[in-house]
Model the fold of this input.
Amino acid sequence: MAELKYEIVEKLGVLGETGNGWTKELNMVSWNEREPVYDIRTWNPSHDRMGKGITLSQDEIMTLKELLNGMNM
Done:
């Protein structure tokens, strides 16, 4: 299996913490030296291990923002 390269370009915020000390975060991440994308996933404290997550483009994050703003909470 090919090595996965990543760089957290910008840490945008922590969404929550799991029971094992990992945090669910929103970051800008460059995967395999590509343009950074918005990324939501869990990370261990040293950010050298990660859980499954989701990546979003600029358009997708804007649509998500509009959807969240339109919700009655």
